[in-house]
């Protein structure tokens, strides 16, 4: 479930950055600080984008940076940063990016499961509205848990 891999402490709101690389470093640092990945994973992700292009921009305003390399991954996790001002990744159709979800996975099965979990939420327009309008990370977590039929707060 998404709530198992996207935790309150993995979310940062209204992050300021100057470019896509800095956005990925900030999203990655959140995972580094929580011992989900090492700096090597973040660097591999950035290098992959430089080499392959902005494949991580998966929809209008949304980037999902990740790499298949297991180097530097301690556990499966997703961080989320909401940018104060959007940045361009170089994806003509979907730039600029407002939300960066950085994914790390310990193996291919975890990778596919995490992608499936986050994709199900990203398909919901309401989820993006919650992220856009939240003043704190707990409200995003509450929405996720409620929609996973775990806990709904009135």
**How many helices in DSSP terms?**
6
Secondary structure class reads: alpha/beta
Using DSSP, what is the number of strands? 5
**What is the first-to-last residue Cα distance?**
22 Å
Helix percentage: 40-55%
Q: Which ranges are low-confidence, i.e. pLDDT below 50, for 5 or more consecutive residues?
A: none
Oligomer: single chain
Average pLDDT, all residues = 93
Please list the strands of the largest sheet in the order they lie side by side.
Answer: 1-4-5-3-2
CATH class: Alpha Beta
Strand content: 15-25%
- In one word, what is the shape? globular
The helix-strand sequence is HEHHEEEEHHH
CATH topology: Mannitol-specific EII, Chain A
* Largest sheet composition: 5 strands, mixed
What's the architecture, going by CATH?
3-Layer(aba) Sandwich
The CATH homologous superfamily:
Mannitol-specific EII, Chain A
Estimated radius of gyration? 14 Å
Domain count: the total is: 1
């Amino acid at each position: 479930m998404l709530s198992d891999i996207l935790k309150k402490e993995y979310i940062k709101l209204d992050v300021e950055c100057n470019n896509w690389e800095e956005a990925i470093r900030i999203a990655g640092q959140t995972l580094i600080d929580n011992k989900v990945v090492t700096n090597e994973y973040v660097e591999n992700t950035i290098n992959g984008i430089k080499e392959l292009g902005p494949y991580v921009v998966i929809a209008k305003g949304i980037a999902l940076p990740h790499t298949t390399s297991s180097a530097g991954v301690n556990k499966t996790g997703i961080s989320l940063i909401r940018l104060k001002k959007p940045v361009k990744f170089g994806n003509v159709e979907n730039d600029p990016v407002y939300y960066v979800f950085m994914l790390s996975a310990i193996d291919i099965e975890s990778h596919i499961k995490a992608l499936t979990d986050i994709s199900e939420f990203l398909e919901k327009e309401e989820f993006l509205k919650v992220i856009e309008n939240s003043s704190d990370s707990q409200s995003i977590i509450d929405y996720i848990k409620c929609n996973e039929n775990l806990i709904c707060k009135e």
